[in-house]
Task: structure prediction
Amino acid sequence: MDAKADLKLLGMAYVDGTELLCSGCGNGLSLEIHKHGFREVHPAWICCPSCGRGEDSGVVTNGLVDAVLATRAARIKEADRDVFRAEWRGIVMTGEMRPLIDIHQLIGAAKAVHEVAAPEVKRWWRSKKKEAKAQLKEKAGAVTGAAKGKANEAADAVKEKADEAISTARATTLTTAWTLQTGGAGPTASPRPKHRRCTVKGCRAGMVTISTRVHAATGKTSEVKIRCGVCHRSST
Result:
């Protein structure tokens, strides 16, 4: 007997209208049936997934299992549910088989996945594109802002140098024009003579301070300022 089940049931199955149940635990859901022996009339081996018990069936034979499998092979398109009704030597078995993965199911599953997933994938790609465009725009704005800042700084420096050059050119032009008009006339040195300090001791701005009683109105000694007799200068 092959370890892989020949027929996997989904839900309850019926043989001539009677529920097919495990004799050990009474479970009838999702039983697995193996063909046992080489003759069609040999009883099939039924395994219960609930209690794990396996035994020869008293109603299901290898021929009945082949008849059930033949109903599946005769179908061209995969149905929503793999419901069967098979008859062998007057014995009728009905139920539902566990779906198998065949080419029709693969195509149907691929179509279903595409129909459901395609809009989500497109939506995801759109969001990623928008995010990438926003990041690129933000980086471009930052680069442009930095470039504008450096351009403004360079323009300010150039303008400052240009203003300095214009001021220098104006001053040179005015100086040249004045020289051409006056022939270089004009004071070249200060008209005021250089101050020379008096050699008389105590002379300050042409005045000498002395102590005397002759010039005092009270007859007492007092300090008076008289004009210097050397430099003859006066503070007035």
About this structure: The CA atoms of residues 145 and 151 lie 10 Å apart. The chain has a mean pLDDT of 78. The helical segments are 62-73, 103-182. The longest strand covers residues 54-61.
